[in-house]
Amino acid sequence: MASHGIPRPATTAHRTEQQLQEEQLQIQEYRDLEDLIRTKIAERQYTLEVLQLTSKLLKKNPEYYTIWNDRRRLLIYGLFSESSDSSSSSKEPSSSSPTVTTSTSSEGVSSSAVSTAENLTTTLHDPPSRNRGKSGTILDLIKGELEFLFPIMIKFPKCYWLWNYRLWILQQANERLDPDIARDLWNRELILVGKMLVKDSRNFHGWGYRRMVVTQLESQELHGKSMVESEFEYTTKVIHGLNGLSNFSAWHRRSKLIPTLLDQRGADDATRQQFLEDEFDLIISAMYTDSYPYAQSAWFYYQFLMTTVTDYVGHATITPNWTQEDRVVFVTRQLAVLGDMLDGAEDCKWVYDALIEYTLALCQMEEREPLPDEKTDCQSWLMELRKLDHLRSGRWDDLEISLEKR
Amino acid sequence: MESLSDTKWDVVISGTGLQHSLLALALSRSDKKILHVDHNEYYGGAEAAFSLQEVDEWHPDSSTGTFQNVTLWKDDADTSSQSNKLSFSRAYTLTLSPQIIYTKSKLLGQLVSSKVYRQLEFQAVGNWWIYNGEGPPLLKRLPNGREDIFRDQGIDNRAKRSLMKFLKFVVDFENQPELWEADSECSLQDFLSSRFQLPPHLQSIITALTLSLDTPGRTIVKWALPRISRHLTSIGVFGPGFGAVIPKWGGGAEIAQVACRAGAVGGGVYVLGTGVTNAVDDRDKERWRIELSNGETVGTKHYIPHSGSANGSNSRMVSKTIAVVSSTLSSLFVNSTEGSPLAAVSVVVFPSGTLHLEEATQDCPVYVMVHSSETGECPAGQCVLYATTLYSATSKPILDAALSSLIKSTECSDARLLYTLYYDQQEDISSPCDLAFDDRILENVEEQWKEAMGSEGADGSSLFMQFEERRGINPDDDNDDDY
């Protein structure tokens, strides 16, 4: 079974005797590696060598989150600290010196940690001038981690631990490096996530990650400023791209950006109204460019836009200064648009659904009961809904009952 | 040296046009004795490619031959002041066959399985445009799918929906015969209007995708639907944003060259400048007696004659102009799809009635294939334009009008014509000029191959166009052992 076009390979297949034996060998190797890492970590051997052992295991099994934690510990108490240790640094917010964590360890371990630090220092050229630690080596380590992650993420694009670890590493960059250097890393992340979303434009991890990256880039700490315009433009691009019309993530992101966008533009009432009209034109055009079996994403966005008009108290709104009458006029217009759309799309259940919903919403806005005509219409639309979507008969029953009550 | 008549040939092929060259390729691994001749001094026949000098030397037999009314024009303005002028002869490879190959065509798969693909470099055909006489804009993109339709603000919502319904139908039309078989002999236009409520300007757009040289009224449903389907389903197969390719360095001519080379490597004997003057089928001895223009006579089991031009009711004429322009016409090559490769060819369609001339009406569509210098057919900074339309008394001025309208519509102020070559081409109705490679050619080749191979071809011991790599031939092979 494929999820939005991305095939899932079968994970179990028939195996020969030889294959089973080979597999046993691989399992043994893996278990040995795991044991080795556990031992070394327990001994607090926070060295480059152990880092590489964890790399070997994580490449095979990125879901083994304990090992990711070991790796974090290794970096904080081992490699990161050593790099900053040899500098005259004073600002070490979250990392502690090796002596604190290894207080219960034997002398042998501390000396190995120190000797590793010596190995590192002999390769350094930068004088210890920055008060945020040996940016040269820490940056190298961080970049190394990002590079290490990348091919694994291509292979396992939905593994939470990879995304978490990546974010953690970048946070480390925020804490340990100059804001400009950190900013550069985050900028590269934006490009990276852009590429991943081209590959699989509906990967929800990708969109969530993008949000986080943009928040970072906008943050004061990284000397950022608002990116709402470029992000809005990005959603426009994705929506107009391949299969963009059914990309729920893109439409959703767009909806979330609108309030800030309009505020930032200092949009006055006329501009806001035009914006609303333009968005409606866009989504209606999208709905006309669809055909059976109709995409739901477009209808969700339509619903969002309508709610900014009908149910705006406490929610996002585009036209905050519209009077009740303005809203009523607009909703009435939309009902006509929907009626028009129905002509030629009698097999689209979303139109009937919307017609009923907004007829009732209109009544609510005007604080009145449905007129007899409206009731008849709703009932006939409901009949069509039952035919087109018989799996939801329970829901239609409820709707029928609530209609009758009025 | 042995004379040709000393050998008992299995197959004699006359003409090195594309189809016959593919046959030579198909037979190149068999142990058959192949003699491949061509009365021209060059390979490619009616699909050949020429340098400028070779064009000058090209004197096709105008009275009865395939090519007639050849007219050449060169820009003789004071070129010393112009920076972009006609370059030296070998800087150009002008092809008589600028055919595009759809990604869904079987040809590409066969070029791969026969292992000659490595000698060819394929480039994308992207950016399809339609000329809108009224304008502005004069050129509009042809929508290739849902995204293009959505973006097109010139199409109203109802039309968008109708177009989508048609697109959904056409990519799966074989499985819905009830929707079209009754109308299979009707004109595509009428079908689109009555069954899909498509207005005239959308009918033009759909018709343009068929690359039909006929008038809209004579483009019928049965012929058009598979072509539209092929066009739409080919997009994205090899990458985003394009659905067809052409080989670099001269299109079909390059494939013919590569195929003949494979034939020669396989032991086939090639003689250019030698045609067949007479062929007698000696049934008693199951052999042909072929008289060659060099005076020799050879005997062969199978004879594949030159696909000559027919006369009379079986034929039709097509008019073509090849033109060199002093500009990159870059506005035609702007990609609209994310991640798509740079296209080397853009296609511009002039539907019937969009060109306005004083002395003529444009009844038939005109197609212009624009080849950038990426095709290797001209120097950087220039383009080659291949214009095609059905012959009529006024087809030359119509082609000229198309070229000048095209140049004007790109708004490249420095663009001017440097060179034009006009000619008419006679052809058999059964294998008409097609701007897109027709897979039926492959069916013909396979049939001829089966006949020549006899039992070997029939029992499956040899597979059509499926070969192993040759050892040591490919200069890219570092390691002879790894296959």
Main traits of this protein?
heterodimer; A: 406 residues; mainly alpha; Serine Threonine Protein Phosphatase 5, Tetratricopeptide repeat; 17 helices; elongated; B: 483 residues; alpha+beta; FAD/NAD(P)-binding domain; Guanine Nucleotide Dissociation Inhibitor, domain 2; Guanine Nucleotide Dissociation Inhibitor, domain 1; 3 domains; ten-stranded mixed beta sheet; six-stranded mixed beta sheet; 12 helices; disordered C terminus
Q: Which structural class do you get from the secondary structure elements of chain B?
A: alpha+beta
* H-E order of chain B: EHEEHEEEHEEHHHHHEHEEEEEEEEHEHH
Q: Looking at CATH, which topology of the domain at 231-405 in chain A would you report?
A: Serine Threonine Protein Phosphatase 5, Tetratricopeptide repeat
Name the CATH class of the domain at 231-405 in chain A: Mainly Alpha
**Rough shape of chain A?**
elongated
Q: Structural class of the helix and strand makeup of chain A?
A: mainly alpha
Strand runs of chain B, count: 18
Largest sheet geometry of chain A: none
The level of helicity of chain A is over 70%
The CATH superfamily of the largest domain in chain B is known as Guanine Nucleotide Dissociation Inhibitor, domain 2
Number of helices of chain B: 12
Q: Can you tell me the residue ranges of chain A where pLDDT is under 50 for at least 5 consecutive residues?
A: 85-134
Strand count, sense and closure of the main sheet of chain B? Answer: 10 strands, mixed
Question: Rounded to an integer, what's the Rg of chain A over CA atoms?
Answer: 29 Å
CATH topology of the largest domain in chain B: Guanine Nucleotide Dissociation Inhibitor, domain 2
For this structure, the quaternary state is heterodimer
State the helicity of chain B in percent bands: 25-40%
Q: Specify the CATH homologous superfamily of the domain at 231-405 in chain A.
A: Protein prenylyltransferase
InterPro entries (chain B): FAD/NAD-bd_sf, GDP_dissociation_inhibitor, Mrs6
Organism (chain B): Venustampulla echinocandica
Family (chain B): Belongs to the Rab GDI family.
Pfam families (chain B): GDI
